[in-house]
Design brief:
The chain is mainly α. The protein is built from 3 helices and 2 strands; from the N terminus they run ββααα.
């Protein structure tokens, strides 16, 4: 199991917060669309935006099935 850690410092969004938001989605075919949906739920990457790529990387990792949460 993946260790939980903070991805978005501005909004205090963790890896598990992103994973939880992804599990609520019905469609997993588009990383950018998944990012928008995760952003609506968690508000990640709406502060300084410095975590944008980290959030995309986490979403890609989870959607590709490389991590079990």
């Amino acid at each position: 199991m993946k260790e939980n850690y903070t991805i978005c410092n501005c909004k205090k969004v963790t890896y598990f917060d992103i994973a939880d938001a992804l599990h609520d989605l019905e469609n997993f075919d588009d990383v950018l669309r998944a990012f928008e949906d995760v952003q609506k739920v968690t508000h990640c990457s709406t502060g300084c935006g410095g975590c944008h790529q980290k959030v995309l990387d986490v979403i890609s990792e989870i959607l590709m099935g490389h991590e079990k949460v």
